[in-house]
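User: Here's a protein and a ligand (phenylalanine). What would the complex look like?
Assistant: Let me lay out the input and then the predicted complex.
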Amino acid sequence: MPTGNSSLIENLEDLRKEVFSALQGAGDLRALEEVRVRYLGKKGAIKSLQKGLGSLTPEERPKVGAQVNQLHDEVESALESKRDALESSALEERLKKEQIDISLPGREDRPGTPHPVSILIDEISTIFARMGYDIYAHREIETDYYNFEALNFPADHPARDMQDTFFVGEGLLLRSHTSNAQIHYMEHQKPPFKMITPGRCYRCDTQDATHLPLFHQVEGLVVAKDISMAHLKWTLETFLRELFGPKTEIRMRPSFFPFTEPSAEVDVWFEGKDGEGKWLEMLGAGLVDPNVLLACQIDPEEWSGFAFGVGVERLAMVRYGIKDIRMFYENDVRVLRQFEGQRQSWRR
Ligand code: PHE
């Protein structure tokens, strides 16, 4: 049955109250959307009222229709402004939550510390620079000639076994010692001269507490008139006393290297904490073999020289009491940071 004009108008009033209280009660955007569907949706209450207009008399229809449409528009714009309000308060809420707490202490940005091997290379370079030595650097990828042949290791010489290295093709290898730099230097420098050359070396060794396939050496080379073992001994003693303290004692034992004659192994005396001391092998050294000078067009009748080579990791292990060489390259910052400010420790 068609609804009477007055009752429909009453219904409209009730509906208006209902819708506005529902709107007021919508606390968030989801609840608001539910209200919209409930009243303005396709099957919503206002939509069905509009559909119901057809059952009114032609006189009633325009009047009631206008009121229903007005309600529809009011609700629509109320919904709109409620949505705006909810959206901006939701944004405010989020901004509040995401606020950066500037009272939090910042992350520490610690600068790095020098690696113990670098500390020692620096220190050794400083000591020799003060004695008037050139500091020289040369290649790590090398030919057989510079790493072996010119240093008086013939192709089939058994001394090569001690320096097995990595062959990288086309007659190239990774240098097994810094002695290759002796040859490069002497090809361009006429004696007399003094130089040291620090750098990386490689050997085909299996890793253990005292061996790594990559390590560092500092090579020294002096060529002048009448150089003798006495000059070598004085130089090494001076160097090692600078490094380990003025009371440091050294000794030289006969040894063999193809590029020095005579050759020596140099030991340093270390006092243990328990009062027991021991000799620790530190360097290889000797007088430059005449064949090496000849390979560089230097006349061995006129000139003579000494050379030495020292393993930097070995020095660092003794200096810092490190038992395992691998610790230098595990990149554990807790280990590496300890050497900060450790230069010239015996002087403090
Ligand atoms: N090159 C030698 C080595 O690596 C060390 C050395 C250098 C010995 C200079 C004598 C002279 O074992």
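Summary: Residues 177, 179, 219, 257, 260, 284-286, 307-309 surround phenylalanine (CB under 6 Å).
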